Amino acid sequence: MSFKGKPLVAVFFLILCSFAHIACEQGSALVRMNLAVETASGGRVPLQAEIARTPAEQEKGYMNRERIPDGTGMLFVYTADRKMSFWMKNTPHPLSIAFIDSDGIIREIRDMAPFSRETITSTRSVRYALEVPAGWFVRAGISVGDRLAGAEPGTSLKALF
User: Fold this and answer.
1) 33 forms bridges with which residues in the sheet?
2) Is the pLDDT reported for residue 15 higher than 60?
3) Side-chain half-sphere exposure of 6, counting CA atoms within 13 A
4) Residue 28 and residue 99: Cα distance in Å, rounded?
5) How far is CA 76 from CA 10, 22, 50, 85, 86, in A?
6) 69, 73, 106, 130: least CB-packed within 10 angstroms?
7) What are phi and psi of 27, to 5 degrees?
8) How far apart are alpha carbons 102 and 81 in whole angstroms?
9) Is the pLDDT of residue 22 over 90?
10) Per-residue b/e over 85-96, b at no fewer than 16 CB within 10 Å?
11) Which of 149, 74, 44, 155 is nearest to 105 (CA)?
12) Cα-Cα-Cα-Cα dihedral sign, residues 107, 34, 91, 125
């Protein structure tokens, strides 16, 4: 295809290619899912989570995110139980992380400092990790032993993933 004598078409084509290149570099947005934490007191705390499933999504996590509102988080989903390790390299927003077993039970909650290269490792093998704004678990009344589940009552994480 020749663009000779068609400068507007050529310019449009170059702009289109530039946008395609930028989109490929940034990657697609993560899938968002409505979830809930079922508390020991019988309450349900809603949460909108971005789902990080692929190694590339999990590696990037919340890097370079300036703002993460309460009530939102990023759920790291793995296919098998394992000890997990996270750090805050290039992550400017302070976070709390919950390590969650395959039944959706929160087994431990830890806080992570912005830009820290300290490795935060789960003490046991777990299936999921949930990152939220620092202190959100406390503000929402969520603690170890509570269960992460689907937005609809009775929907387990196993049913979703």
Assistant:
1) 49
2) no
3) 9
4) 26
5) 43, 25, 9, 11, 11
6) 69
7) 80, 170
8) 7
9) no
10) ebebeebebbbb
11) 149
12) positive
Tokens of 75: 């759920």
Q: Using DSSP bridges, classify how beta strands 72-82 and 44-52 pair: parallel, antiparallel or unpaired.
A: parallel
Q: Are 33 and 49 in contact (CB under 8 A)?
A: yes
Is-contact 134 112, C-beta < 8 A? yes
In DSSP notation, the chain reads ---TT-HHHHHHHHHHHHHHHHHHHH-PPPEEEEEEEE-TTS-EEEEEEEEE-SHHHHHHTTTT-----TTEEEEEEEEEEE--EE--TT--S-EEEEEE-TTSBEEEEEEE-TT----EE-SS-EEEEEEEETTHHHHTT--TT-EEEESSTT--HHHH-
Residue 77's DSSP bridge partners are 128
Does 116 or 7 have the greater pLDDT score? 116
